[in-house]
Protein backbone atom coordinates (compact mmCIF):
# COMPACT_ATOMS: atom_id res chain seq x y z
CA UNK A 1 0.00 0.00 0.00
CA UNK A 2 1.34 3.40 -1.00
CA UNK A 3 0.13 6.99 -0.72
CA UNK A 4 -0.85 9.17 -3.65
CA UNK A 5 2.40 11.10 -3.31
CA UNK A 6 4.47 7.93 -3.54
CA UNK A 7 2.31 6.69 -6.43
CA UNK A 8 2.89 9.95 -8.26
CA UNK A 9 6.61 9.76 -7.61
CA UNK A 10 6.91 6.15 -8.75
CA UNK A 11 4.84 6.54 -11.93
CA UNK A 12 5.63 10.11 -12.95
CA UNK A 13 1.91 10.91 -13.05
CA UNK A 14 0.96 14.14 -11.29
CA UNK A 15 -1.27 13.92 -8.24
CA UNK A 16 -3.92 16.09 -9.91
CA UNK A 17 -3.95 13.72 -12.88
CA UNK A 18 -4.37 10.67 -10.62
CA UNK A 19 -7.34 12.36 -8.93
CA UNK A 20 -8.75 13.23 -12.38
CA UNK A 21 -8.49 9.58 -13.48
CA UNK A 22 -10.33 8.55 -10.30
CA UNK A 23 -13.05 11.14 -10.93
CA UNK A 24 -13.41 9.93 -14.53
CA UNK A 25 -13.72 6.30 -13.41
CA UNK A 26 -10.47 5.16 -15.03
CA UNK A 27 -8.97 4.39 -11.62
CA UNK A 28 -10.98 2.76 -8.85
CA UNK A 29 -11.49 4.80 -5.73
CA UNK A 30 -8.61 4.09 -3.36
CA UNK A 31 -8.87 2.98 0.23
CA UNK A 32 -8.20 5.62 2.83
CA UNK A 33 -6.19 5.72 6.00
CA UNK A 34 -7.85 6.80 9.21
CA UNK A 35 -6.36 10.23 8.49
CA UNK A 36 -8.26 10.32 5.19
CA UNK A 37 -5.19 10.00 3.00
CA UNK A 38 -5.58 7.85 -0.11
CA UNK A 39 -3.71 4.54 -0.22
CA UNK A 40 -3.20 2.44 -3.34
CA UNK A 41 -2.60 -1.26 -3.83
CA UNK A 42 -0.46 -3.02 -6.44
CA UNK A 43 -3.41 -3.51 -8.78
CA UNK A 44 -4.10 0.23 -8.81
CA UNK A 45 -0.41 0.98 -9.39
CA UNK A 46 -0.46 -1.35 -12.42
CA UNK A 47 -3.68 0.19 -13.72
CA UNK A 48 -2.20 3.70 -13.51
CA UNK A 49 0.87 2.43 -15.38
CA UNK A 50 -1.41 1.05 -18.08
CA UNK A 51 -3.27 4.34 -18.38
CA UNK A 52 -0.04 6.31 -18.54
CA UNK A 53 1.42 4.08 -21.25
CA UNK A 54 -1.83 4.20 -23.21
CA UNK A 55 -1.77 8.00 -23.12
CA UNK A 56 1.89 8.00 -24.21
CA UNK A 57 0.85 5.91 -27.21
CA UNK A 58 -1.81 8.47 -28.07
CA UNK A 59 -4.92 6.59 -26.99
CA UNK A 60 -7.75 8.87 -25.92
CA UNK A 61 -9.29 8.58 -22.47
CA UNK A 62 -12.37 7.07 -24.12
CA UNK A 63 -10.18 4.43 -25.78
CA UNK A 64 -8.46 3.66 -22.49
CA UNK A 65 -11.83 3.43 -20.76
CA UNK A 66 -12.78 0.80 -23.36
CA UNK A 67 -9.47 -1.05 -23.05
CA UNK A 68 -9.72 -1.40 -19.28
CA UNK A 69 -13.42 -2.18 -19.34
CA UNK A 70 -14.16 0.74 -17.02
CA UNK A 71 -17.89 0.35 -17.60
CA UNK A 72 -17.75 -3.20 -16.15
CA UNK A 73 -17.61 -4.49 -19.69
CA UNK A 74 -14.19 -6.09 -20.26
CA UNK A 75 -13.32 -6.00 -23.97
CA UNK A 76 -12.61 -9.13 -25.96
CA UNK A 77 -9.28 -9.55 -27.70
CA UNK A 78 -11.12 -8.77 -30.95
CA UNK A 79 -12.48 -5.53 -29.44
CA UNK A 80 -8.97 -4.54 -28.36
CA UNK A 81 -7.59 -5.33 -31.81
CA UNK A 82 -10.31 -3.29 -33.54
CA UNK A 83 -9.68 -0.28 -31.30
CA UNK A 84 -5.91 -0.58 -31.73
CA UNK A 85 -6.19 -1.00 -35.50
CA UNK A 86 -8.39 2.11 -35.72
CA UNK A 87 -5.85 4.06 -33.64
CA UNK A 88 -3.01 2.82 -35.83
CA UNK A 89 -4.83 3.96 -38.98
CA UNK A 90 -5.24 7.40 -37.42
CA UNK A 91 -1.52 7.54 -36.59
CA UNK A 92 -0.58 6.52 -40.14
CA UNK A 93 -2.79 9.28 -41.55
CA UNK A 94 -1.12 11.81 -39.26
CA UNK A 95 2.32 10.61 -40.36
CA UNK A 96 1.34 11.15 -44.01
CA UNK A 97 0.15 14.66 -43.16
CA UNK A 98 3.33 15.39 -41.20
CA UNK A 99 5.50 14.23 -44.11
CA UNK A 100 3.61 16.58 -46.45
CA UNK A 101 4.08 19.37 -43.93
CA UNK A 102 7.80 18.60 -43.60
CA UNK A 103 8.24 18.69 -47.37
CA UNK A 104 6.37 21.98 -47.73
CA UNK A 105 8.27 23.67 -44.89
CA UNK A 106 11.59 22.41 -46.28
CA UNK A 107 10.77 23.99 -49.64
CA UNK A 108 9.74 27.24 -47.99
CA UNK A 109 12.91 27.32 -45.86
CA UNK A 110 15.10 26.85 -48.96
CA UNK A 111 13.66 30.09 -50.36
CA UNK A 112 14.89 32.07 -47.37
CA UNK A 113 17.85 34.33 -48.06
CA UNK A 114 18.68 34.62 -44.34
CA UNK A 115 19.53 38.30 -44.45
CA UNK A 116 18.39 41.56 -42.87
CA UNK A 117 15.85 42.26 -45.60
CA UNK A 118 12.35 42.70 -44.07
CA UNK A 119 10.86 40.95 -47.11
CA UNK A 120 10.92 37.28 -46.09
CA UNK A 121 9.82 34.48 -48.42
CA UNK A 122 8.83 32.32 -45.45
CA UNK A 123 6.36 34.96 -44.25
CA UNK A 124 5.11 35.37 -47.83
CA UNK A 125 4.56 31.62 -48.18
CA UNK A 126 2.77 31.38 -44.83
CA UNK A 127 0.54 34.29 -45.84
CA UNK A 128 -0.75 32.49 -48.95
**Residue share in helix:** 55-70%
User: Structural class of the secondary elements?
Assistant: mainly alpha
Adjacency order of strands in the biggest sheet: 1-3-2
* Number of structural units classed as domains: 2
Count of individual helical segments: 6
Q: What composes the largest sheet?
A: 3 strands, antiparallel
Describe what this molecule looks like in 3D.
By secondary structure, the protein is mainly alpha-helical. The protein folds into two domains: 1-75, Orthogonal Bundle (Multidrug-efflux Transporter Regulator, Chain: A, Domain 2); 79-128. It has helices at 4-11, 15-23, 42-56, 61-68, 77-110, 121-127; strands at residues 2-3, 31-32, 38-40. It has a three-stranded antiparallel sheet with strand order 1-3-2. The longest helix is centred in the last third of the chain and has 34 residues, at 77-110. The model has no long low-confidence stretch (mean pLDDT 90).
Structure characteristics:
128 residues, mainly alpha, Multidrug-efflux Transporter Regulator, Chain: A, Domain 2, 2 domains, 3-stranded antiparallel beta sheet
Secondary-structure blueprint:
Blueprint lengths: L1 E2 H8 L3 H9 L7 E2 L5 E3 L1 H15 L4 H8 L8 H34 L10 H7 L1
Antiparallel strand pairs: 1-3, 2-3
What's a quick, concise take on this entry?
The protein is mostly helical. 63% of the residues lie in helices and 5% in strands.
